[in-house]
């Protein structure tokens, strides 16, 4: 009988990640996320938040695939738009960033910023995705805080 283990070469551990959040933010749990935080002091219709997800992907996976998924997501939303992707270096790693926006009936404009990075991990790639969301009347005020949190990301390979 064969024993399978996690972590192992066949099932590698996820990278370790950190974010720095302001004093008036709090950690929260979100489905499918390894880490999330939100503003604890927001009084608007939309609570600014940052979510980190890590997904195992095949070695032939390209960031362009993730960008295509997000572009399609934005196109399906009212007045949905996606920015052109750009590159940013965080903690010595290359990430691709992309912004989406759409109009929500209850909140108004929602703006999401996304960062994607790939970490080699055994026979796979680990896709690290950080999503920061703001919305409503306070979106312009909250966006710089969310961007600062996202750019504090550190990633350590398993």
Characterise this structure:
The protein is of the alpha+beta class and 158 residues long. The protein has one domain (16-156): Protein Transport Mog1p, Chain A. 16% of the residues lie in helices and 44% in strands. It contains 2 helices and 10 strands, in the order ββββαβββββαβ. It has helices at residues 63-75, 139-151, and strands at 16-18, 25-28, 35-39, 49-58, 81-82, 86-90, 93-104, 108-121, 124-135, 154-156. The strands form 2 sheets. Strands 2, 3, 4, 5, 6, 7, 8 and 9 form an 8-stranded antiparallel sheet that branches. A hairpin with a 6-residue loop joins strand 2 and strand 3. The chain is globular, with a radius of gyration of 17 Å. The two termini are 27 Å apart. The mean pLDDT is 93.
Write the layout of secondary structure elements.
Elements: E1 16-18, E2 25-28, E3 35-39, E4 49-58, H1 63-75, E5 81-82, E6 86-90, E7 93-104, E8 108-121, E9 124-135, H2 139-151, E10 154-156
Antiparallel strand pairs: 1-10, 2-3, 3-4, 4-9, 5-7, 6-7, 7-8, 8-9
Q: Which features characterize this protein?
A:
158 residues, alpha+beta, 8-stranded antiparallel sheet, globular, Protein Transport Mog1p, Chain A, 2 helices, 44% strand
The top level CATH class name: Alpha Beta
| Main sheet makeup | 8 strands, antiparallel
CATH homologous superfamily classification: Mog1/PsbP, alpha/beta/alpha sandwich
Q: Could you say what the CATH architecture is?
A: 3-Layer(aba) Sandwich
Find the structural class using helix and strand composition. alpha+beta
Question: Unreliable runs, pLDDT <50, ≥5 residues?
Answer: none
Overall structural domain count: 1
């Amino acid at each position: 009988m064969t024993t399978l283990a996690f972590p192992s070469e066949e099932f590698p551990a996820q990278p370790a990640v950190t974010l720095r959040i302001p004093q008036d933010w709090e950690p929260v749990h979100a489905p499918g996320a390894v880490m999330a935080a939100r503003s604890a002091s927001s009084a608007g219709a939309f609570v600014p938040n940052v979510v980190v997800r890590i997904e195992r992907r095949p070695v032939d996976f390209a960031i362009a695939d993730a960008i295509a998924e997000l572009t399609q997501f934005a196109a399906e939303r009212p007045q949905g738009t996606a920015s052109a992707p750009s590159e940013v270096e965080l903690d010595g790693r290359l990430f691709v960033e992309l912004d989406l926006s759409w109009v929500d009936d209850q909140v108004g404009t929602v703006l999401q910023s996304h960062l994607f990075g790939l970490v080699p991990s055994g026979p796979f790639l680990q896709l690290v995705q950080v999503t920061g969301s703001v919305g409503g009347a306070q979106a312009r005020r909250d966006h710089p805080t969310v961007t600062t949190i996202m750019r504090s990301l550190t990633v350590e390979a398993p």
